[in-house]
Design a protein that fits this description.
The protein is an alpha+beta fold. It is 35% helix and 22% strand. It has one domain: Sandwich (Immunoglobulin-like), CATH 2.60.40. The chain contains five helices and ten strands; from the N terminus they run H-H-H-H-E-E-E-E-E-E-E-E-E-E-H. The strands form three sheets. It has a five-stranded mixed β-sheet. It has a three-stranded mixed β-sheet with strand order 4-10-9. A two-stranded antiparallel sheet has the order 6-7. Helix 2 runs antiparallel to helix 3. The chain is elongated and about 85 Å long. It starts with 9 loop residues before the first helix and ends in a 13-residue tail after the last helix. It binds copper (II) ion (CU). Copper (II) ion binds next to loops.
């Protein structure tokens, strides 16, 4: 079935601006935290190097035209420091990131209260739009409805080429691959509209493969998905 591509005007695309730093929920809070830790550490290293370079330039500058610097062959303490220091810093940042991967992929543990309340949604990408299939077997196109304040576990797949699902304010990126089911987790802590876009170049309509997520109060969410049409002819990823 061919669904016509509605050509969006530049102003309509501008309305899709999404800033992950304006977090919409718990998964993005973790991503924003990591972002600022990385920016902080990177800035501290930049400042340290800049200050040291400045000190060296002034303190060891050539004072006479025939002056030669003192010749040295290695300074063990310094070399150990600039090897071990960055190793510790990078290992810490790596560990901090690794600790978030499970949560950003699967959400709260399935045996926790939050995990048990999680709502599953299937996300199916194709050139050039998204279909969302809910637990009741109904579907929506381009707009995904989620209950606010509830973890939403996504199972993603593609019917043609590689697509990428990303709504920056409510969760991490996840690929939608043909023949392979991927899993991700999104959550919006308040009702609202969140914008995203396919992030994997998937053909001529890629730029128009937008995603709108409407987070609704839970009762309104249930009423909304009950009124959607039933999904037909789609792979069953979780149903
Ligand atoms: Cu795409």
């Amino acid at each position: 079935m061919l669904v016509p591509i509605v050509l969006a005007s530049p102003s309509a695309l501008a309305a899709y601006h999404s800033d992950f730093l304006q977090s919409g929920g718990p998964p993005d809070n973790r991503i924003v935290m990591l972002f600022w830790v990385f920016v902080g550490c990177g800035s501290a290293v930049l400042l340290l190097v800049a200050v040291l370079v400045g000190i060296v330039c002034v303190r060891f500058r050539r004072r006479r035209a025939d002056e030669m610097p003192k010749q040295v062959h290695g300074v063990a303490r310094l070399e150990v420091a600039w090897t071990v220091g960055p190793m510790i810093l990078l290992a810490t940042l790596f560990g901090l990131t690794l600790a978030q991967v499970g949560y950003l992929r699967h959400g709260p543990p399935p045996n926790s209260a939050a995990g048990r309340s999680a709502v599953p949604i299937e996300v199916i990408g194709r050139q050039f739009y998204w279909t969302f299939v809910y637990g009741n077997g109904h579907e929506s196109l381009r707009t995904m409805y989620i209950p606010a304040g509830t973890p939403v576990t996504l199972a993603t797949e593609s019917l043609d080429v590689i697509h990428g699902f990303w709504v920056p304010q409510i969760g991490a990126k996840i690929d939608a691959l043909p023949g392979i089911v991927n899993h991700a987790f999104v959550e919006a802590s308040r009702p609202g509209t969140f914008n995203g876009q396919c992030y994997e170049l998937c053909g001529v309509g890629h730029a128009l493969m937008l995603i709108t997520v409407k987070a609704l109060p839970p009762a309104q969410y249930r009423a909304t998905i009950a009124k959607l049409p039933p999904a037909t002819g789609l792979p069953k990823l979780i149903r």
